[in-house]
Amino acid sequence: MTERYDVAVIGGGPGGYVAAIRAAQLGLKTACIEMRQSLGGTCLNIGCIPSKALLQSSEKFAEARHSLAEHGVEIDAVRLDLGRMMARKDRVVTTLTRGVEYLFRKNNVDWLKGRARLAAPGRVVIESPQHQQREVEAAAIIIATGSESAALPGIAIDERRILSSTGALALDHVPKRLAVIGGGYIGLELGSVWQRLGAEVTVIELLDHIVPTMDRELAAALQRALARQGIASRLGAKLAGLDQRADSIGLEIEAAERHTIETDAVLIAVGRRPYTQGLGLEAVGVACDPQGRIVAGEGFATNIPGIYAIGDVIRGPMLAHKAEEEGVAVAERLAGQKPHINYAAIPAVVYTRPEVASVGQTEEELKAAAIPYRTGKFPFTANPRARTNGDTEGFVKILAETATDRVLGVHIIGPDAGTLIAEAALAIEFGASAEDIARTCHAHPTLNEAVKEAALAVAGRAIHI
Fold it and tell me: What's the pTM value of the predicted model, to 2 decimals?
């Protein structure tokens, strides 16, 4: 007999599994269809989580080699055990993916293993790994299939020398030279991992600055910081050709003039594209835009009644936490509630060292929109906790509307920026002014005091600089 559900979620990543859990919490009979052998999607399996595990491990390796002596910790010899580092990364992934399985059991979400295809509105065909088919019916179908690494025409990724982010998370050796094509989040984070472990890293970016979606001042500061660490950047440069040889790879770069870069491995990190392959969207008539994203309107509804879409398959930043918020929102809407997402308050973080975090509008966006604003900045060199930690690179920058003092954007480069940005996101969510932040008591000594001082600086009254 055909199984019937109130909600069927296609995709077990951050958007999908959160949507499924929230729907079940609200009393809806829910199934989540996932083709991987583990839940968590790209983020937990081959994205956010393994990359952060390697970032943490590589930072500890670099700290042991270069920084601990300053603290009076002497180590005679530091040796890299890459196999053990990778094993730890895998354990972290396994623990978290099994945690999602537990949450499904706890909340009575049925995990249907296999590849899903829309058969009709309200009907999904699932093909199991053993190629057996089953069909389920659902009053609401939520597409949350995420995204995949974008490719470059004519370049075949073998995950040995020509890598996607997946291959770059699983190398069994440190390449002597690594070229990263693309200066966005993924390329910079993974480039940082391998540079700390001993690779000579060169980032090749088509635009004239890295992290294109970030505030330009932060992008420039990050590029300088990475250069000091040994990561070279070729900006305004295009990959024009690739020649694989027995002992190296030649990259033909088109910039002011053509030249060739020799490398041992290449990471293709030019962005991501929605994963909608084999879903049967065309057969059912679900509308997509020219970029291949599913068109979702009010309440994440597609043009086909009963079919919804969230996360990386629709318009907006391809961020796991954005997908999670949409997963909660669509589930609550299906249960009759009226949730709201403030897309201006969704933070973005680059987990390099220093970290870079941003929420709200950039200076470039404010200037383009002709919005008068004031700026407050505070450097971590003047923050006592950053000084005691020996981690003083970077600053906090707050942009506030001139007429109202309302916080429009906050941009941080420095220690633990990804955590510090939460206060700024909350300020934007509640429509706070810079003075609201400035008059809020911050514990001393903490890194968060830099946010308070930047808010004070908006009015020209920072205390500690």
Answer: 0.95
